[in-house]
Design a protein that fits this description.
alpha/beta; 4-stranded antiparallel beta sheet; 16 strands; about 10% strand
């Protein structure tokens, strides 16, 4: 990794002056973000980060003075061409030709692994990770919240795989519970086998809406409870109908996930743990954790004072299991099956208290590995409507974004002829959805806007795709072979240096996202890279330049496209080559 070589060189010199091991200094030396003001410096060391106990007691004036004193003790060498100070920082400018040569060689040599081999990850052990995401309820509408869970979980899994971890992607379907009692009764009254085969999700949703209207009626409620009890008692007829619901739904989901470019290693579900949930209840009882209320429900006391001021219900009064009981069984089973190092659940923040309860109960049961479980929660999307009105199914959104993108492509003057415009529109449209979703903190709600998401200029997924396609066509135009032997003295213009400086800090961005599992760092990085590339494309022409200059610039654009494609794929976006 280019940045690593430079950080190590700076750390070696600092270590002699500060009498600290170089490895203790590496993470304190960070690449300077490129800004419109155009800093000449490439790396900076925050003086506060190397002070014992941090900087809370230091005045800005003191830090400035320390930075100046430290800078005076350091010397320029073959790597560092200039040393300066900023507010509480020592800044290092890398020899310009060495910067260009090292960055471009490293990007083209590492290819898809550029940034992931960085020594920033050297202290991070390779892990087995289980990521549970998407997890729609078969009987209910596959709404936009499931899109968020799907793309966020996919990003987390992609990032972990890129960093060398072993990842198991699980889709834990909501395929059990009282709603299936209601759905079973509903299907008996309003169901149609042919419609179930041809459009399972739509038909089950229609049946669910109809039976829900009747659910206020005591007779319907009783029938639903009876049907669910039959399921729990393995009644053949009830199970056969339920299995049809599940199988047809999974087939439909798989088709939709294919459109999203998402795959799973395991389709699991609550139904898998119906039997094992009874084993969990027995364990809770044996450990003295299960209590019966006067209403006959089974609860676990989570309060510190053991006064039932905080509790979790794990079994209904009629003896049927609950969602949390099956989740407990699933967590224990996955540890036995995968022996994971970390398990991540991706759901909306409304389920935060459910996961707090789940983790608390597992801890009470004596499972210390619960400390390695994590709930990644996300906020709500507001204003997501299609032209037909309110969004019901994820597929409505995918169809809408594709059709709007096709319209935009047809009317745009810059659109090239593409082999399959529908497929291109789908990929560009999906990029638009993903970037709009990933730009902010995952836990925040956001207001969705079709117009904003589909703009071809500005901070959008469409702009990323456009930049990638443009750079790809530039390569095609000037020979598609990777350029290796170049004269780096030809890449000294400020716009070329800005791109190189930005490429330099890719590993830091990956590291940051790996620490907090927030895609916004990578999104922000790629958008800046695209804006820098657009400026460079305008000011550093390949066509009409001398052969040496053309080769050097082409190499810079190849490296830019490579890193852009890597980052997009991590986010779950398939880069297009023409649009």
């Amino acid at each position: 990794m280019a940045a690593c070589a430079f950080r190590r060189s700076i750390a070696r010199q600092l270590s002699e002056v500060l009498d600290l091991p170089p490895e203790n200094l590496i993470k304190s030396i960070s690449a300077v973000p490129v800004s419109r003001k155009r800093h000449d410096a490439d790396f900076q060391l925050s003086v506060a980060s190397i002070e014992e106990g941090g900087s809370s007691d230091c005045l800005a004036q003191d830090l400035q003075l320390r930075a100046q004193k430290l800078a005076e003790k350091l010397k320029c060498d073959a790597v560092v061409s200039e040393i300066s100070t900023g507010p509480g920082t020592v800044n290092f400018t890398i020899n310009r030709e060495l910067l260009a040569k090292t960055v471009l060689q490293q990007v083209l040599k590492d290819g898809t692994q550029y940034g992931t081999k960085s020594e920033l990850f050297s202290t991070v052990p390779k892990q087995k990770a289980v990521v549970e995401f998407s997890s729609p309820n078969i009987a209910k509408k596959f709404h936009i919240g499931h899109l968020r869970s799907t793309i966020i979980g996919n990003f987390i899994a992609n990032l972990k795989v890129a960093l060398g971890h072993e990842v198991t992607r699980i889709n834990y379907l909501g395929d059990w519970g009282m709603q299936f009692g209601l759905l079973g009764v509903g299907f008996q009254q309003f169901g149609d086998k042919e419609k179930l085969k041809s459009s399972p999700l739509q038909h089950l949703f229609e049946v669910y809406v109809q039976i829900n209207k009747a659910a206020a009626d005591e007779k319907t409620k009783k029938l639903a409870k009876d049907f669910f009890r039959k399921l729990e008692e393995h009644d053949e007829q009830a199970l056969s109908l339920w299995k049809e619901f599940r199988d047809f739904s999974i087939k439909e989901y798989t088709r939709i996930y294919k459109r999203l470019g998402v795959h799973f290693d395991e389709y699991s579900g609550e139904s898998f743990y119906q039997e094992k949930s009874w084993e969990v209840l027995k364990m809770l009882e044996d450990k003295g954790l299960l209590q019966k209320t006067t209403k006959g429900t089974g609860v676990v006391d989570l309060s510190e004072k053991k006064d039932l001021s905080s509790l979790s219900t794990v079994i209904r009064s009629d003896g049927t299991s609950l969602y949390i009981t099956r989740d407990l069984a699933a967590a224990i089973d996955r540890m036995n099956k995968y022996n994971w190092d970390t398990m991540i659940y991706v759901t909306d923040r409304n389920q935060s208290s459910h996961f707090q309860h789940l983790f608390q109960i597992l801890k009470l049961m004596g499972y210390d590995w619960v400390e390695r479980c994590q709930h990644v929660s996300f906020g709500l999307v507001q204003g997501m409507k299609t032209r037909k009105g309110e969004v019901i199914f994820l597929e409505d959104v995918l169809d809408e974004v594709r059709s709007r993108m096709l319209e935009n492509m047809a009317s745009a003057k810059t659109t090239k002829e593409v082999e399959d415009p529908v497929e291109t529109a789908e990929k560009v449209g999906l990029a638009a959805l993903i970037i709009q979703d990933f730009r902010g903190l995952l836990s925040s709600d956001y207001q969705f806007s079709w117009d904003r998401a589909l703009q071809s200029r500005g901070d959008t997924g469409v702009f990323l795709q456009y930049t990638h396609a443009r750079l790809h066509s530039l390569e095609q135009m000037h020979g598609n072979e990777p350029v290796t032997d170049i004269n780096v003295a030809c890449l000294q213009e400020p716009d070329a240096i800005s791109v190189l400086q930005h490429l330099l800090r890719y590993d830091e961005v990956l590291y940051r996202s790996s620490q907090d599992l927030q895609p916004k760092h990578i999104v922000s990085y790629l958008l800046t890279l695209s804006h820098l590339a657009a400026v460079a494309h305008r000011t550093l022409p390949v066509k009409g330049s001398t052969p040496a200059l053309a080769q050097a610039r082409l190499c810079l654009f190849q490296a830019t496209r490579s890193v852009l494609a890597n980052g997009m794929k991590l986010l779950g976006i398939t880069p297009v080559t023409r649009m």
